């Protein structure tokens, strides 16, 4: 009953005010970026919903509802612009510690989102994957996300990964336990465990590493999100609050990514000597040069 009343309030709020997506950018705008300079895998920490609401004298839950509008447009933009994979931090293992009212509202919005968006996502050939402990979700939410994954499992378009009940340390612990079980059963030898073996036990098995991680609201930390997958990700900490994040801002972030020189711990051939000298003088090695 509470969730239904809250959803009704959010619906009235969203229809009474202008759309939050205020700066549409047509797909052609992204064509200014060469395909080889676009990230294959973008991960976004959607932060700032609560502060957005508080600035307007609204409950924090209203910010989450407004953030859903931004979510829709960024997913569509990623699909329009040819991003291969998009991972979104929706609900962490630590978020259960928030107030019961806010958790209930978030769970209600989760159901509402899948009910309203699944047809379009499936029609656009989007494949949905949930990153996190699905079994730990409440029954209706668990059923909704499992149904979405099953329905879209054979789609070949945008890989939309939604982190729900997710924690990076829990993911790595889970992977280690699964490898230990395989060793105990004789399926695997300890000497066979390498990076590839561990990656195969992660929720993101089969996906490329994250190329670009964006966090909105100005906070500058990963908050236990994809620690393994973001090892060499370029990071952008954007001051825009998530409900105000739109295609224009997303495109600015993609352009910033395209302008960066990614060396993965190495150096360019034409500058290797000078950079190696600098690293040596500082008591570093080239692996520490980002």
What can you see in these coordinates?
With 290 residues, the protein is α/β, with parallel strands linked by helices. It is globular, with a radius of gyration of 21 Å. It has a six-stranded parallel β-sheet with strand order 3-4-2-1-5-6, with helices on both faces. Strand 3 (127-131), helix 6 and strand 4 form a beta-alpha-beta unit. The longest helix is centred in the middle third of the chain and has 24 residues, at 100-123. It has a single domain, classed as 3-Layer(aba) Sandwich (Undecaprenyl pyrophosphate synthetase). It is built from ten helices and six strands; from the N terminus they run ααβααβαβαβααββαα. Helix 1 (2-16) crosses helix 5.
């Amino acid at each position: 009953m509470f969730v239904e009343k809250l959803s009704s309030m959010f619906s009235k709020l969203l229809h009474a005010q202008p759309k939050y997506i205020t700066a549409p950018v047509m797909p052609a705008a992204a064509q200014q970026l060469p395909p080889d300079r676009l990230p294959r895998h973008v991960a976004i920490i959607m932060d700032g919903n609560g502060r957005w609401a508080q600035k307007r004298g609204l409950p924090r839950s209203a910010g989450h509802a407004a953030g859903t509008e931004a979510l829709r447009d960024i997913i569509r933009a990623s699909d329009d612009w040819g991003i291969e994979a998009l991972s979104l931090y929706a609900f962490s293992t630590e978020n259960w510690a928030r107030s019961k009212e806010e958790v209930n509202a978030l769970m209600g919005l989760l159901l509402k989102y899948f009910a309203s968006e699944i047809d379009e996502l499936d029609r656009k050939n989007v494949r949905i994957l949930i990153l996190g402990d699905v079994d730990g979700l409440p029954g209706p939410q668990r059923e909704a996300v499992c149904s979405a994954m099953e329905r879209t499992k054979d789609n070949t378009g945008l890989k939309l990964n939604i982190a729900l009940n997710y924690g990076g340390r829990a993911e790595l612990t889970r992977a280690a336990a699964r490898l230990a079980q395989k060793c105990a059963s004789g399926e695997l030898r300890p000497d066979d465990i390498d990076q590839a073996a561990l990656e195969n036990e992660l929720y993101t098995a089969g996906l490329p590493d994250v190329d670009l991680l964006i966090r909105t609201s100005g906070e500058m930390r990963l908050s236990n999100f994809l620690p393994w997958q973001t090892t060499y990700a370029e990071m952008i900490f954007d001051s825009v609050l998530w409900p105000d994040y739109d295609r224009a801002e997303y495109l600015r972030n993609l352009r910033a990514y395209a302008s960066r020189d990614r060396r993965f711990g190495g150096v360019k051939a034409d500058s290797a000597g000078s950079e190696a000298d600098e690293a040596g003088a500082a008591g570093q090695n080239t692996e520490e040069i980002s």
